[in-house]
């Protein structure tokens, strides 16, 4: 197929709708006014906060009316193929020549991710060519009107997100994993979906060992969150951790838990490496599962629990853990509380929809402060589908138990 | 906990949209068949409060979809997806004669949409809604660049679309109120057209010298666009409202320098003294004599150019026009007589044999201020006419529902017209096609 000269006197028309969207929303990319039945490449480009460039691209052929619609047409290849309306986002990967072990994570959620979508002539390498047309689209974690409050009292560190409107809203305590630090983006997105959400920095990166992570610590955090849900007093922000601790009282509040790849802490001598020298940690978990003293007694759980697992998780043995939990809860007559979603060819980092799949990433070892690359697993397309599906199921689980349930009690 | 309140959810998609994009407002999880009021509130840049509201009954699942369900009362009724925007009115007790116009186009218009229990018509501030969200409406799409222009003696703002370009260009003219009004040009740039809003009545030149600009001011603006590296010099259009129309028609027919791809004239007329230009028009308006007033003291200026003269020295000879022309007129325009002018222009073009260039959109019950869609209809407002230096309560005309429909229809057709004339390959060189 020969490339057609797309002259400046017949400019193609590119549209991305909506041009400003939340990160879990789909968009439609449409190109019109093209020469008919001609090859073109659509490319997305994102310059991350860390200074790396990420790109995705698909190869298309215009129809007889001179149109390419990413929602309806087939990509003939690129970083994704087939009919993939959001392929330009979920298949984003670092451009050739980038540093290794990169993971795309937004730190500043008050600004959007800016993605430039460009159209190039032909199916050959576009890197040395100028695009025919391009436009910028914004992808936001925070919806309009969401309030972000930084919490910086000593032991209580994080960011609280409050939706607009009169409330009251159900609350969510959002906890990330072994990397530590403060990650706000999922909380911002959950607030955009109608929840007061606290992204908690329960230990700083590299300081896991020296941080208080007692059960009581988390109870205080939950109390903090609960008081915010029902109190309109902004004075709560002046309370210290100790104020919350001393006002700790047992409320029979309605809780449900969502666990993405449940992690239990402790022993780490079962780490192995793969052919790329990336660390595989899944055997650590398998060893721990054999030790009853290392396991939370899930028979005592009294609230609905959703477990989301990747079958190709190379970091934690999520499926085996879920099996173990399921066995214990069933034996205790609590099986009806448990829902599990096991996604084939899906890795450890099951993130909000359209987040680029990270099969291996840099992490600072909490025991030694050393930087290593951990293998997370998963194949890009199934992993991306899993992110999309699991997010919808998580939102519907949360809505069912926190918004609509007739069993909601104080 | 009030269980009922905790359940109701309200969503608006998209939550951040362009001002001419539709949204979908959805209420869910209310009690089935419950009476609900959906309420919109906006505080404009001048600090005034505007609101709109509509009465709905949720269905058997407890849902309301504003795009599909019928409003049974409020500031609009019937099935109106965008009614909460176009029916916005100043809240009771506001200063009369307000008009909503965005000055800072780099920030969005923020509207709060809430849902209340029951069918309310007032007292919204005293009640706690069941739910509320914020919606942003933008004139500028992401990546659009705003560039103030002061070269060549111009007072203008250029909006460049996102991307490498080059882009078709457009000159955007408003009417007798003067000022540099940017929002329509910003919105057109969001649709891929490099658009320049021009101030031609209160521009730096006029403020400093006291003189009204001549034809060469507009030709300078045209040449600025033509030589701009991001603009396709052979694809430039003009769009104008009211007095802006007068300028466009004169330039389109008589300028040796301007070769327009097409022109769009909204709510204007071709009637003007041919032996002069703006200055002569200004003088003519100043010496009009007494104004006509309605019973409630609003000034009506539509008679000023009537009857349409037969003398060709008093109107632009559109029979000589060589580019496609779109005329958008409201038949209830109380400020100018665009409908009568359009009929006369149509006749002239039929007799000259160039009427194939004409697209005429004439809207019953639409008034003078035919603006981009979903913005509130202004039937009457406080107005300071730069030409006559008078401040009056002016009747623009139009009935809100039909005027709002006209704005939506006209804008859509205007964009198609611009796209066809600015983007088509008809005038260009050969286009090579290839087959698979």
How would you characterize this protein structure?
- Chain A: Belongs to the C/M/P thioester hydrolase family.
- Chain A: Residues 270-403 form the BAAT/Acyl-CoA thioester hydrolase C-terminal domain.
- Chain A: The chain crosses the membrane at residues 217-237, 249-268.
- The complex is a heterodimer of chains A (410) and B (436).
- With 410 residues, chain A is α+β, with helices and mostly antiparallel strands.
- Chain A folds into 3 domains: 13-140, Sandwich (Immunoglobulin-like); 145-238, Rossmann fold (3-Layer(aba) Sandwich); 258-410, Rossmann fold (3-Layer(aba) Sandwich), CATH 3.40.50.1820.
- Chain A is built from 7 helices and 20 strands.
- Chain A has a 6-stranded mixed β-sheet with strand order 2-9-8-4-5-7. In chain A, strands 10-11-13-12 form a 4-stranded mixed β-sheet, sandwiched between helices. A 3-stranded antiparallel β-sheet of chain A has the order 1-3-6, with no helix packed on it.
- In chain A, strand 4 (39-47) and strand 5 (53-61) form a beta hairpin.
- The model of chain A is unreliable at 1-8, 248-255, 260-267 and 406-410 (pLDDT under 50).
- Chain B has 2 domains: 8-138, Sandwich (Immunoglobulin-like); 145-422, 3-Layer(aba) Sandwich (Rossmann fold), CATH 3.40.50.1820.
- Chain B has helices spanning 3-7, 83-86, 183-189, 204-209, 215-227, 243-254, 278-286, 338-352, 400-423; strands at residues 9-13, 16-18, 24-28, 35-43, 49-57, 64-65, 89-90, 109-117, 131-138, 145-149, 156-160, 167-173, 194-198, 231-241, 262-266, 292-293, 299-300, 325-330, 358-363, 380-385, 390-395.
- In chain B, strands 10-11-13-12-14-15-18-19 form an 8-stranded mixed β-sheet, sandwiched between helices. In chain B, strands 2-9-8-4-5-7 form a 6-stranded mixed β-sheet.
- Chain B starts with a helix and ends in a 13-residue tail after the last helix.
- At the A-B interface, strand 1, strand 2, strand 8 and strand 9 of A face helix 1, strand 1, strand 2, strand 8 and strand 9 of B.
């Amino acid at each position: 197929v020969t490339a057609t000269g797309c002259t400046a006197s017949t400019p193609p028309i590119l549209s991305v709708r909506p041009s400003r969207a939340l990160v879990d929303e789909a968009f439609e990319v449409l190109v019109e006014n093209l020469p008919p039945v001609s090859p073109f490449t659509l490319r997305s480009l994102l310059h991350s906060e860390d200074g790396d460039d990420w790109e995705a691209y698909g190869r298309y052929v215009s129809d007889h009316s001179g149109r390419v619609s990413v929602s309806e047409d087939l990509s003939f290849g690129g970083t994704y193929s087939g009919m993939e309306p959001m392929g330009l986002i979920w298949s984003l990967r670092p451009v050739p020549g980038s540093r290794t072990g990169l993971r795309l994570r937004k730190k500043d959620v008050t600004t959007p991710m800016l993605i430039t979508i460009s159209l190039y002539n032909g199916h050959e390498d576009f890197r040395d060519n100028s695009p025919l047309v391009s436009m910028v689209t914004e992808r936001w974690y925070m919806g309009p009107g969401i309030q972000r409050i930084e919490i910086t009292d000593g032991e209580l560190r994080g960011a609280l997100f409050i939706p607009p409107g009169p409330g009251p809203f159900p609350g969510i305590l959002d906890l990330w994993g072994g990397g530590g630090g403060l990650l706000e983006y999922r909380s911002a997105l959950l607030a955009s979906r109608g929840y007061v959400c606290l992204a908690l920095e329960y230990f700083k990166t590299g300081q896991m060992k020296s941080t208080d992570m007692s059960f009581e610590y988390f109870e205080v955090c939950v109390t903090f969150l609960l008081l915010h849900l029902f109190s309109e007093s902004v004075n709560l922000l002046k309370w210290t951790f100790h104020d919350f601790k001393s006002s700790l009282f047992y409320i029979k509040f309605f809780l449900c838990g969502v666990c993405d790849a449940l992690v239990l802490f402790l022993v780490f001598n079962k780490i192995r490496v793969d052919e790329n020298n990336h660390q595989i940690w899944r055997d650590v978990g398998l060893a721990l599962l054999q030790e009853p003293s290392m396991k939370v007694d899930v028979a005592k759980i009294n609230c609905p629990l959703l477990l989301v697992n990747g079958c190709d998780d190379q970091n934690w043995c999520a499926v085996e853990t879920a099996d173990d939990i399921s066995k214990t809860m069933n034996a205790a007559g609590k099986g009806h509380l448990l829902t599990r979603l096991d996604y084939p060819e899906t890795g450890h980092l099951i993130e909000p929809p359209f987040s680029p799949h990270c099969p291996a990433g840099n992490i600072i070892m909490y025991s030694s402060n050393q930087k290593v690359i951990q293998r997370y697993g998963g194949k890009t397309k199934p992993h991306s589908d899993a992110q999309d599906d699991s997010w919808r199921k998580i939102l519907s689980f949360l809505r069912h138990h926190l918004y609509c349930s007739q069993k909601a009690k104080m | 906990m009030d269980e009922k309140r905790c359940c109701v959810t309200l969503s608006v998609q998209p939550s951040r949209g362009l001002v001419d994009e539709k949204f979908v407002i959805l209420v869910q999880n209310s009690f089935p068949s419950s009476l609900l009021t959906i309420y919109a509130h906006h505080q404009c840049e001048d600090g005034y409060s505007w609101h709109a509201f509509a009465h709905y009954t949720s269905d058997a699942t407890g849902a309301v979809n504003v795009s599909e369900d019928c409003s049974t009362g409020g500031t609009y009724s019937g099935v109106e997806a965008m009614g909460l925007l176009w029916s916005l009115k100043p809240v009771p007790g506001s200063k009369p004669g307000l008009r909503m116009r965005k000055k800072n186009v780099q920030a969005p218009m923020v509207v709060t949409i809430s849902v209340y229990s029951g069918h309310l018509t007032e007292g919204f501030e005293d009640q706690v809604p069941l739910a509320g969200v914020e919606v942003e409406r933008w004139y500028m799409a992401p990546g659009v660049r705003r560039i103030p222009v002061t070269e060549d003696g111009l007072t203008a703002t250029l909006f460049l679309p996102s991307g490498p370009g080059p882009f078709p260009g457009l000159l955007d003219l408003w009417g007798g109120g003067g000022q540099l009004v940017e929002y329509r040009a910003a919105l057109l740039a969001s649709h891929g057209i490099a658009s320049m809003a021009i101030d031609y009545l209160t521009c730096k030149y006029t403020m400093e010298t006291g003189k009204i600009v001549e034809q060469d001011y507009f030709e300078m603006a045209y040449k600025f666009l033509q030589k701009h590296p991001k603009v396709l010099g052979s694809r430039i259009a003009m769009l104008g409202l009211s007095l802006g129309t007068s300028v466009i028609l004169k330039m389109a027919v008589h300028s040796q320098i301007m070769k327009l791809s097409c022109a769009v004239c909204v709510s204007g007329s071709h009637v003007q003294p041919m032996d002069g230009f703006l200055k002569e028009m200004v003088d003519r308006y100043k010496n009009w004599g007494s104004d006509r007033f309605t019973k409630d003291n609003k000034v009506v200026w539509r008679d000023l150019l009537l009857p349409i003269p037969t003398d060709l020295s008093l109107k632009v000879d559109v029979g000589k026009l060589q580019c496609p022309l779109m005329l958008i007129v409201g038949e209830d325009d109380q400020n100018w007589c665009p409908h009568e002018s359009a009929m006369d222009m149509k006749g002239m073009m039929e007799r000259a044999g160039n009427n194939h260039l004409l697209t005429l959109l004439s809207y019953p019950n639409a008034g003078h201020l035919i603006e981009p869609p979903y913005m509130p209809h202004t039937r009457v407002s406080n107005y300071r006419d730069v030409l006559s230096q008078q401040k009056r309560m002016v009747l623009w005309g139009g009935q809100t529902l039909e005027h709002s429909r006209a704005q939506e229809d006209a804008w859509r057709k205007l964009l198609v017209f611009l796209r066809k004339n600015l983007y088509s390959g008809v005038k260009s060189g050969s286009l090579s096609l290839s087959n698979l």
